[in-house]
Amino acid sequence: MMDAALFHSDLMIAYCGNPLDRAENCRGDEDWLLKACQKGRFLAVRSGKVAVHGGMPPTLFYSTYAQMAPLIEAQADCVFLGVQQDQTPLFAVRCPKEWELPTDAIQASRPLLFLDGRSLAMQLSSPAHDQGITGIVAQALAILSWHARHRFCARCSSTTVARRGGYQRYCEACNSEHYPRTDPVAIMVPVRGDFCLLGRQPTFPPGMYSALAGFVESGESLELRCAVKCMKKPGS
Ligand SMILES: [Zn+2]
């Protein structure tokens, strides 16, 4: 059993605490989505990175519908993430590599830049920071990555189209629905007394160690994965 003392107030678990109401009951309503889009905020995602105001701590940069309309009308991937606590709809849009952040939104004191999820989590690792940002960014990057990799039907290879605010792809050729893939994983830190077990890959830079982690296979329990992961390979 994990030492409860590890879960002290200085520990933050990245990508948790997403505060958005995903409004599942509204996703299938195209009229509602259109109105939400026109009054919504937009996260700009480019090459797997999200636009943020730099500095410590970084904060999310929200584009307006007017700024994103050219991309949306050009059929850029646009997904509805959910509704923020102030009832503002939040979307994420994939921007082409050559796309630049709006010049009228760039503030010299808070430079705008694109940051990957891990770097953002590292910079928001204190409980004093907004715990929900990394969860929102994880959602945005994951769903846009799924769209980029699943444009064609797995049954008939026809081109699929996004539906339900980006949480479904539909094949009009064979009438099949496709949903975002979820890969469960387990991550663990075995502890004994004041010691814990970490690991490292040959590709890690010198001095870098990490918790142990692995994907969970179909029908495999998380508890079994944790136990097996901590054992030596058979024959070694
Ligand atoms: Zn198909």
From TrEMBL:
Biological process annotations from GO: NAD+ catabolic process; NADP+ catabolic process
Q: Name one Pfam family in it.
A: Zn_ribbon_NUD
- Name all NADH pyrophosphatase-like N-terminal domain ranges: 40-146
What cofactors are annotated for this protein?
Mg(2+)
List each copy of the Zinc ribbon NADH pyrophosphatase domain by range: 148-179
Q: Which SUPFAM superfamilies does this one have?
A: Nudix (SSF55811)
GO MF term list: metal ion binding; NADH pyrophosphatase activity
Q: Does the keyword Thylakoid apply?
A: no
Q: Name one GO cellular component term.
A: cytosol
- Which UniProt key words apply to this protein? Hydrolase
**Entry-linked Gene3D superfamilies:** 3.90.79.20, Nucleoside Triphosphate Pyrophosphohydrolase
Q: Does the keyword Hydrolase apply?
A: yes
Please state what the protein is called. Answer: NAD(+) diphosphatase
What is the originating organism of this protein?
Iodidimonas gelatinilytica
